[in-house]
Amino acid sequence: MRSIWYGNNPLKYLLLPFSAVFWALSGVRRLLFVLRLKKTHRFSAPVIVVGNITVGGTGKTPLVVWLSQHLRAKGYHPGIVARGYGGKASHWPQQVRADSDPVMVGDEAVLLARLSACPVCVAPERPAAIQELLEHTDCDIVLSDDGLQHYAMGRDLEIVVIDGERGFGNGFLLPAGPLRELPGRLRKADLLISNGSWREGVPSMTIREPQVLPLLDLSEQPQPLSKASGETVHAVAGTGNPQRFFALLEHYGLKVIPHAFRDHRVYREKDLRFDDDLPVLMTEKDAVKYARFATGKHWLVRIEMAPDAAFTTEFDQLLQGLKHGQEAT
Length: 329
Hints:
2 domains; 29% helix; alpha/beta; 10 helices; Rossmann fold; six-stranded mixed beta sheet; nine-stranded mixed beta sheet
């Protein structure tokens, strides 16, 4: 679909009737919440949604991790909720720890628990996850990783992350294009941020130099990615935008043999066994799922993002004005 969404493939026009159906169904669903025919849950703690209007990776999860650290530095006790995409647990909600099984609760949830050191809870219905956090942890503010279109979840602040490189693709709604909602939806968000430069006046976030750790021993001292400049490596990415990871490695001088997998892939041992002795570098999300098969050749690349000062200032101002919602009933 990437060639249709982000290229000039004429097949996009054949899919426009399906996009019209998607637009109509989405509009009706949203209207049901506006008319209060469907319930929007409110909570005793503020809820901040970090989402996007496109399909695929835009950098929401690194931003949620940064926000959790920023909030803790300001004296809050943040908790994080997510859908638990791909999780096969038999009941929901599920509280997630750093050592939880990603097969049961989803890879991104385990990654969030590891990187944020915050309470994390997942459920397909996010209001249930939020209520679980509020009842069983000291959480006093909630971050939702994705969920912009999950209107059953009340929110006090919306942050929309935009892919600075790919933008909105061909500008069409699913399935003809990558959009979940039309760009006009951005006017209703409280704060925009782009992953990389996008448009003048929109704050952006940039990647700090990535660090590399051996998958067999994550307690080792991380090494800067630039130390591997000039090396030939296998690069593995099962994310919404694998090319972003490959380009990052090339930016730091590595010679990349790319291996792109579908997002949220559950890996088998043979998937990342290659017939040579070259290092195998992967995203941290992929490492969560492959750790049990790791050898000395397997390394994770830890990527941290930092918003610019304009975003931080605006976010802190909005944070001051947050008012608690009502208890969910």
